[in-house]
Amino acid sequence: MIWQELRSQGDLNDLISLSFETPSGVAVFKHSTRCSISMVAKNRLEADWNYGDAELPLYLLDLLVYRSVSNAVAEQLGVQHESPQLLIIKNGKCIYHASHLAISVHKLELTS
Fold it and tell me: What is this structure's pTM?
């Protein structure tokens, strides 16, 4: 599992473009480094992740450092901001999202 950082509007634009090229889409994990629930959700993703980096690229968005990017994600994809939050973007649209302890690779597998 390789975390790619989502740090700018340009990164977001590139991620959305990539979502048209990758059959499974791309994943974005919105993470607060000061939140214990966010850390638990991140650790669970890392422990259970079974997708290859080319199959489902995974982006990490640090909400405390890049809040404006988080706002742009919510606005451009029409998904209400939550933290922590996992989004799957495919063909430029959010096709799956979960937050807090509902974030689970198992649940993600059920929707793909």
Answer: 0.92
13 sits in which H/E element: helix 9-21
Per-residue confidence (pLDDT) for residue 111, from 0 to 100: 56
Alpha-carbon 37 to chain mean position: 16
Confirm if 31 and 38 have CB atoms less than 8 A apart.
Answer: yes
Query: Alpha-carbon distance 13 to 92, whole Å?
Result: 10
Q: What is the pLDDT of residues 49-99, one digit of tens each?
A: 988 888 999 999 999 999 999 999 999 999 998 899 999 999 999 999 999
Give, rounded to a whole angstrom, the gap between the first and last alpha carbons of the chain.
18
Supply the DSSP symbol for 83: S
Alpha carbon distance 37, 75 (integer Å): 24
Residue 75, SS3 per DSSP: helix
CATH architecture assigned to 3-111? 3-Layer(aba) Sandwich (3.40)
